[in-house]
Amino acid sequence: MPPSLPRRIRALGLAPLLGLALALAAPLPRALGAHGLPGYAPGSGVAAAAARRISRWALREYAVPGVAIALVHDGQLVLAEGFGVRDLDTGAPTTAHTVFQLASVSKTFTAATVAALVDRNQLGWDQPLVTVLPEFRLADNDAGRWVNARDLLVHRAGFPAFFGDLFDHLGDDRAEVLHRIRHVQPASSFRERPAYSNIGFFLAGELAAAAGGQPFTTLADSLIVQPLAMTRTGTASALIGDGSAPGALEDVSRSHALVGDRLQVVPPNLSGLFIAAGGFASSASDLGRFLTMLARGGELDGRRVLSEQAMQQLFEPVIADEPGFAEFPPIDADSGFAYAPGWGVYHYNGLKVLEKGGALDGVRTLVLVVPQKRFAVAVLANRNLTALPEAVRAALLQQAFGRPGEADLQPLIRAQARELEGLVLAVQPPPADPRPPSLPLSAYTGTYVNALFGSWTVAERDGALEVLAGPAGYRAALSPWNGESFHLLWPGVISAPVEVPFQADPGGR
Prior knowledge:
This protein is of the alpha+beta class and 509 residues long. Among the domains are: 7-30 and 39-103 and 233-261 and 277-425, Beta-lactamase (3-Layer(aba) Sandwich), CATH 3.40.710; 441-501, no CATH class. Helices cover 25% and strands 22% of the residues. The chain has 13 helices and 21 strands. The longest helix is centred in the last third of the chain and has 16 residues, at 410-425.
């Protein structure tokens, strides 16, 4: 990841293998001009018909194959519907029941699961993790001693931003990764500032599992999913998979991305380990029930799922951050930005807004709650990183709570999307006078061992080098770049090269 990129560009969701920003490589169509939302009328109210109109407009404007939305107004689900197609290869339609990968929207389920455990007195928000997992350690002794669920869910444990997603692909089991995390060097002092971390949410899932005495996914299902009668929500690997796994569903959205100049179906990036950070899947109809419960203060259909105290803790800002270039309007310098457990928080026209976005290969997602108005939105899109979810949620916010005469935010959102795209499309220029490796490729082969990431093998095949990482033999290309520096490229449509230097020992190895 080029260091010049603003750090919050990468905060849009799960950042697989340091390459999330390249998801913006899917160019926006030229049709995106300076014109605004058709029928723009701030503060005129939003009903199902308006939400349908906005969704169809956004589908065309952002050239996304399919989108599904849920809209909760005044504590009632008024719309759950799909638009476009869930699979470009088959043309199958997107419906309210189409299951999408949630990416980092999964974090809201993790936070809700922790809140439910607190309701049951099985865990405390400020209870140190080591009281439940006594063998746990961190490189920062103070952080290791005091870090708790609240710290992990608001990204203030001190981990480097967007670091560590590679653990999800190496094939190590949960216990091994839990042990290896002690070797992650902190990027800041404990609780000094937030830094978006999927490692933190993995740890929150492990903490919940230890406190609840069951696997994290089982707890999330029994405490949140089942009480809400969400029949099409679970892990993406089980519900979507490669289409052949037992229990995989038929009505699922496929991932789409530009490969070359063609928009096509691409393999899903499925989480095996970091499920608490980004491994859930759901539908608009199911998310509508989840969001209705949140908008109603923890209750649905006369049943209380989360206590009022739990809802207060979930929606209470804990640590402030500066809005970055990847926060789309209405988030700006005057809106504020902070983290609550599992959520980002800002203000719009005097209203507190809770929002969480997600991104994976070929998927964009977003959920939003305005507690004061018992209003909520979910937007699920099946194209490589696109600003469609932000465009739809901004249109719905303005339609519902805008002030007469305020500017339409759509031109700003499209302009920012283009500018962000241009920034991340900038590639590292080749050296002016690149040097070849000083040794034959065979000299770089062998097994390399590291306390943090374990054992990796560099092998030569067909005249080129490759890396086989971890027990899974996760494969990456390794190409000469400049002298003893090579470029490492992991698989996936949104991976970016990582520069890797080799150093020789005194014996020349």
